[in-house]
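Fold sample X.
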Amino acid sequence: MNGKQIIPFLTTKSLHPENQESPINFLNEWQTPIKYFYRRNHFTYPFLTQHHFWIQISGQVHQPRFFHYNEILSMPSKSLIVPLECAGNKRVNFIPKVYGEQWEEGAISQGKWTGVSLKDILENVGLSQNAQEIVFEGADFGKKPGMHENIPFERSLPLEKALHPDTIIAYKYNDKPLSFKHGYPFRLIVPNWYAMASVKWLSKIKVIDDAYKGPFQTDDYVYYPHEDSDRDKFPVTILNVNSIIQQPIHLSILNIGIHEIKGIAWTGNGSITELQLSFDKGETWKYATLNSLLNQDYAWSSWSYIWKVEKKGEYAIYSRAKDSSGRIQPQTPFWNRKGYGYNAVSKITVKVE
């Protein structure tokens, strides 16, 4: 190989807007390098000005005001290792197929986010007793399919989640300023929720006294269980328990002998307590070795299993994770019209020669 390092690349799903998957099968670090962090956009990238170095807070507050970038940097900060997963990750696996970006397994990445607790910032302005939800507006905007006017990307959080001390306004990733493509100068980070909640290029925060009904809240990022009806719909929020087999890669050809099977597992409710593997299509299960990051409540767990294979043939390998709340990956996914939250048992097939 002439001593040259082989490096992976992002996998492009679309260019306008830019949506690219992380090379998740080849990432073994707790902190995804920014160049390998997946990219998910609804619109083209915003054109930033000096105006975007201020965050405006308004609505049901006692003292509406602006916070400048330097002021936020001067406030007490905290750092958290948090994975961000697109709600459409693994969408390609749904049967029947659903419309939307056909993400495989790489719409997830993890790193160290540093910023200021949103709770601390809101204490500076004082919430009205009428406050019910908090709306976050990014600097990115454009035309949503079926709409004629430009709209910003905008989402809300209930008070309880917004005021959790680990919901932060981040300005660093892996100890460096946020990259432009991942939200510079400010990005909301909402641990345990799918990444649509972690609004990029955060520019405005508005406290409201009712339920927010913007299109990215009540149309997109909603589970629709029925193909031709909105009946029984409910919002996308907490991450499902999930796992990925990173190595070997699906449809690999292996030699007879000993192989390490490895991957990651994550959840939005509690922590990963078990990772099991099956080599007989779910009839029996074997426990993998879990490795969790100490003192990091939100980080994914890595796992590994030493597999000794003595016979040639084709093998299906399944993985399923279980979390401390008792949730376990199901054999079949919860099908929904927009293809969110896929977390069925992860499967690969390999051939041994």
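Fold sample Y, listed below.
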Amino acid sequence: MENMIHSTPSHTSLPDCFVFPADQVLPASSAVVSLPVIDMSRSRDEVRRAILNAGKELGFFQVINHGISEQAMQDMAAVGEEFFRLPAADKVELCSEDVTKGTQLFSGTTYETGGERYWRDCLRFAYDFPVGNCTKDWPDKPHRLLEVVENFTLLTRGLAMELLRLLCEGMGLPLDYFEGHLGGGYVTLDINHYPACPNPSITLGLPPHCDRDLMAVLLPGQVPGLEVAYNGDWIKVQPVSRAFVVNFGQQLEVVTNGTLKSVEHRVMTNSALARTSVAMFIAPTEDCFIGPAAEFVSEENPPCYHTLRFRDFKRIYNVVKLGSSLNLRTNLRKVQKET
């Protein structure tokens, strides 16, 4: 537990390993730019158009009236915060930097770049869906964790698959296009904890990155911290009551040949308040080959991306920077040469 940031009761100074050059921690724009808020109780046609528009411009949006109860959202937020308040003895066996483990508790070392560390601890669950026997390695405290995480994952995965079906309707893909191998890989649930930080202006909770999966559904918590790249700047995401933040991963950009965007985002820290968020990721199966769908390719619009097996994409992901959409197009050629 000595590597866990939250295991130290209070931090009065920032260790050097967390300090970044000023040009890597530029403040967000002061301009007011809000993520689109999509009301899923509106007509299906209206919701579909709103998702497509958001995906083409920002790659991010928030959804309300999504069918997941406020109680389920509150339970997930509460059990996540409760976990990080547990005594160290109740968590120590979960600590691991082994990314192949299905259940692990790790700190910012997983996102090391040049020896720098990020101000974040994370409890990660990665398992086949439905859960089945995967829960045998899950922590038994807090006592409701298993029940709450299972229920939350079931609900948020259902929401993600419905959003993908809406995208299929709007883009002319078969409605079940993402039902098989493309959306049938491990479900990953991250409970992220960003302790109060003594100097948020010189460190990061998470680095600028694009998610490598298909789609992410985020319960952002009440403390702001998420920022999204927009027109060469960063915009702050203000949490909306009872809303989920949704963003498109790189595999969705590849499938749509760049029609939908996977956009860089980062997490900033807070000097006064800890922040806990919960992210659920939809991913392809390891052996799934992913490339632009035929519906998005023509003589006038040739493929922008190579077709790759998802396990190969993951293997190279942390070696070749694949942050922005432009980098994704350029560097997938490097990935192709590595595989």
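Sample Y note: Residues 5-294 form a domain with the Jelly Rolls fold (CATH 2.60.120.330).
Also: The helical segments are 44-57, 70-85, 145-171, 250-255, 310-317, 325-338.
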